[in-house]
Amino acid sequence: MWQNTEENLRIQLAECYHLVSYFGWTEMIFNHISVRLPGEPRRYLVNAFGLNYDEVTPENLLVVDADGHIISNGVTRPNPAGFALHGAIHAARDDVHCIIHTHTNAVCAVAMKESGFSHDNFYGAQLFERVGYHTFEGITLYDDERPRMLESLGDKHVLVLRNHGIAVGGADIPRAFFLLWIAQRAAEIQCHTGMIPGADVTLSDTIRRRCAEDAESVIVNSSAAQKMFDAAVRKMRKERGPLWVGDTQ
């Protein structure tokens, strides 16, 4: 059985970075994926600034506090733009142990739209009443934006940063990755739908709500997220080989 130890979290977080690279969701050396250390409510693992996602290994992940200060593992600094966002959510939400932030084309396009996510496609319906929206204030560098981001997120697990990108949070790495995948698919389908002439078929709020509740139940209350994450890692390893020197998984 998978154990929630720092060693295992380092491996799984490095795998998550490689998966985001594998699916083409990276933004060069920018953006972050962070995970809370077991038994350490204000300490997290995150990537060192300057590495491509496929260069992240279990060994070169940094331990930082909620303000982005390095606790251990060298002198390389994390990107300061990340922990105004990641640190704020981690510090305020005990239920969010992993946060993933991306700027994919489809997600950024949806973030530009006043209406945000459509809830009329299969994946968008799964996000109904699960998305918060935060008004763009520039690059997320400043501590004074933290309370406003948290107010925008509320009790939800998806935060659309208007004119910017998205952040998703989950109770662990696989569940955060699964939620990111749903949001990415919803955004892609919404963008493609917008290119086709004609009226869209809309869903009732009743159907949307039931779909979102069922999707949340699958992610939170079953092993589906872990199975999906493991399958994605197997597929990636089959196509790309070992993820880092010494990878024997």
Automatic annotation (TrEMBL):
Family annotation (SUPFAM superfamilies): AraD/HMP-PK domain-like
Classification via Pfam families: Aldolase_II
Domain (Class II aldolase/adducin N-terminal) ranges: 11-191
CC annotations in GO: cytoskeleton
Annotated SMART domains: Aldolase_II (SM01007)
InterPro entries: Aldolase-II_Adducin_sf, Aldolase_II/adducin_N, Aldolase_II/adducin_N_sf
One MF term in the entry's GO annotations: actin filament binding
Family: Belongs to the aldolase class II family.
Name recorded for this polypeptide: Class II aldolase/adducin family protein
Organism: Acetobacter vaccinii
